[in-house]
Amino acid sequence: MNWIEVPSFAKINLGLYIKEKRADGFHSIESIFQTISLKDLLYFKLGGDKIEISSDNPNLPVGPTNLIYKAANMFKEKSNERLGIKIKVEKNIPIGAGLGGGSSNAAVTLLTLNSLLQHPKNTQELTKCAKKLGSDVPFFLKGGTALVKGRGEKIQWAKDIPTFPILLALPSFSISTKDAYNWWDKEEKQTLTNTDLSLILHGMQEGKREIFYELENSFCDLVIKKYPQVKNIMEKLRNLKPINVLLSGSGPAIFAVFGSEVYNYRWGDIKTDNYALINCKSISREKYFNLLKPKED
């Protein structure tokens, strides 16, 4: 068969509030997940008798520790398929940036293999696999807008927020989510706010862009303490007069939400070699679903 190309989209956290630490060692969170137009490209080709992963990014592990490999291997084991597959990854979502790139790759692998093998698994079975791969993976089976709770596995699929533009700032370093939670525990931080994210979400669904201003991220102060350059980047973004500037996940990716498109000439004077700037926009669930349909390269 020919190579099949499938996009793998990133997500941002529209607010992230850390709640109590659970008995299983994980933390409960509350966040609004939103898929955005920044994407990796995954190329699939059935054949052979083993799983082979390759990438244009030398920093991406391509062996059994890779989430793509784990997803393909799990699908193979759960489906009792004699599955041989080659997967090439064109990496555009930074690793360890708080944008869910690895989780997205894993979910897209499950969906694509299910499609290529004539849908041996139903949605419930795919979701069960996704939960075993990671807390954020189930979200990427559908994308769009969702209110997420628990350790990230409790997903309330929401009506999509009207499309909005964002400007991503991507520092050259990464932050381990595990490290970020360890910082939180050592600092004995408390939940930032009692704000009900469902109320903010409702306002955003109605197109009230100004309500983005009420969003916060519990990790922000801790990340700035460890990496002062994050604060500098956020201040530069605020010079462009966005509605809000937020950390995504545990960072270090930062994004600014605007009321209208942000063109290059508006941010040329804040560009440096210390981070990349990328114009993006939100991706609705319907568009996400349509774009994820495999196509021959």
Task: Describe the protein's topology.
Layout: E1 4-21, E2 27-46, E3 51-55, H1 67-79, E4 85-90, H2 101-116, H3 123-133, E5 145-149, E6 154-157, E7 165-171, H4 177-187, H5 197-205, H6 220-226, H7 228-238, E8 244-247, E9 254-257, H8 264-267, E10 275-281, H9 285-291, E11 295-296
Parallel strand pairs: 3-4
Antiparallel strand pairs: 1-2, 1-11, 2-4, 2-5, 5-6, 7-9, 7-10, 8-9
Helix pairs in contact: 1-2, 2-3, 6-7
Can you walk through the features of this model?
This protein is 30% helix and 28% strand. It has helices at residues 67-79, 101-116, 123-133, 177-187, 197-205, 220-226, 228-238, 264-267, 285-291; strands at residues 4-21, 27-46, 51-55, 85-90, 145-149, 154-157, 165-171, 244-247, 254-257, 275-281, 295-296. By secondary structure, it is an alpha+beta fold. Strand 8 and strand 9 form a beta hairpin. The strands form 2 sheets. Strands 1, 2, 3, 4, 5, 6 and 11 form a 7-stranded mixed β-sheet that branches. A 4-stranded antiparallel β-sheet has the order 8-9-7-10, with helices on one face. It has 9 helices and 11 strands. The termini are close together.
